[in-house]
Amino acid sequence: MQKKGLVFMWRLSLVRRAAAVGGRVKSSGSASLPYHRVLKMLHAEGEGLPAAGGVFEQFRAFYRQVMADKAASGRAVKPIEEFCGASEDVEPFALVMMKVLCDLQKMEDLRFLFAQCLLELPSPSIELFNVYLLAISLTDSFNQYEIENVVEVMRARAIHPDVVTRLSLFMLYIRLGQDYSVWWPEIRDEVLSIEKSGQRGQYPLLEVRLQHCFQTILRLHHDVTMIQECFDLLKLVDPKRISSRLLLPYMLLSANNAAAPPAMTVQIVELLEATRKVEDKTSECTSSRTVSEDAETERTNVDSTEPVLNNELTALKLMAKCAKWGDVASAEYVREYLRKHPGIISPTNQPAVSLLFLEAASRGAMLKEALAVLEDEVPETHCQPGPRPKMFLESRKVTLLNADPIMTLARFVAFGEASVEEGLAILEERREAGGGVSHKSLNVLMEAAVLLKDEGKASVVFAAFEGLGAERTSRTFLLLLLSMPDAASATARIPEVLAEMSDLGIEVSRDFLRGALELAIDAQDVFTAMQMVGYHEKRSISIESKLSIRLMRLLCLVADVDSVRQLIAALKATESPVDSRTVSLCVATFNKWAIPCDDLKAV
């Protein structure tokens, strides 16, 4: 069906060309000319195409008879000219009949007719070659030798190729796996020149060949710039050819192609939406003029409200592309589009859309928008940096970003064009305007202070919680500790911080305990580290394997066998992994110093 549709698209152009060439023929008796009969049959409803094919069968029978007479008499013959009645009728007949044979998929008959024309016509027009190249390009049966033979005939007959010829050869060679990209700039410039000078009417096949060229490079080429330039040419030369069937694969390709800018994809989505509306109106008008045979079918045709961007993964990939490029305008368009069509993104993946917009705003240096989406849309469970520096969509098992949006925002505040002070000013302005300010955005400013190792800025943000009506969390206190210049000073303040958290009724979280334990290990503070282990055991929170190994090695270094026993007991109580190699290292060290540790051998 798709191939038949492609064939149908060039019918009008070819009929126009045949009529133009045939306009030189005398009007007397023109209705009986073979190519006129074929044109009438093509315009007829029903059996027009098979009937037109019957004219070629008449020519074939005539050809056999003429060639038989030639064998008997030895005279020179021109079968097509004799069949048409005059030499000037040969090319119009060949053009329209080649179109018929292509529609009927009789390519060998088409090749035979083209070869016979070359034998009879001393100087065939370039249009004959263009139609032939168009016809064979609609099949998969051509090869390089056939194309080179056509080029050689043109060279021998001194027939100069036009822009349509070059477009055809460009496509055919691409389909044969050869790179002729160097031709494209010249082809593009010539098409622009033709359009500017208003000479498009001299190239009746230009529009359809541009469409074929776009479809070819869209399928086989990887040059994003060339694809976009060809699309722009087609839109300039013949906007009516921009259909939803043409735009949909382009949208999918650009959404999944990392080299294509997101603005291009958004432009295609907008154009596709507009085209769909026009097509729906046309379909509705057609349905209203036609007597409905099936009410359900008619209702389906008219009610075409499904969005063009209707695949969840494609939409998320497009948002991820906007995030990578820092294209806030495109990200805003996609986000609004998804809001208008709420069924595209599942509730589980809604936070991903907000986080991707947050990434785009951060990379696009738009701090106010980033903080707004963090406050209004990002759930509390997603508002702190994750364990891995990337954004992995668990439901789809796909990595959308090789970055953590929350950390990207924190880095933008710390090292980009923004600052912690600017962030506080934006949040104060938001508060005065009646908007809510929470620990989600303030903690990100604290994250920026941690990256800068600036305890002063962290303290300023910490103090701003009360003025902005935000509640501190255990993460807030941990970030205050992490902002200190060294681990020793941070570890020294852990008891004070724990006491303050207890006074405020803030529960010690897993995240805080992990961070505090790591600080204590970095500071080589065994007492505080074991205190954090006790908190883990008391709350049945598992201890990360990496930290338990580091702590056990530290205890081994200071030869603290009792703390090793306590640590192993806590690991077992919290169902945390116990590294046997590290335990063996401790046993070997303790034995070297004659420290009793036989009970550790059974671990």
TrEMBL record:
<feature type="region of interest" description="Disordered">
    <location>
        <begin position="283"/>
        <end position="304"/>
    </location>
</feature>
<keyword id="KW-0732">Signal</keyword>
<protein>
    <recommendedName>
        <fullName>Pentacotripeptide-repeat region of PRORP domain-containing protein</fullName>
    </recommendedName>
</protein>
<feature type="signal peptide">
    <location>
        <begin position="1"/>
        <end position="20"/>
    </location>
</feature>
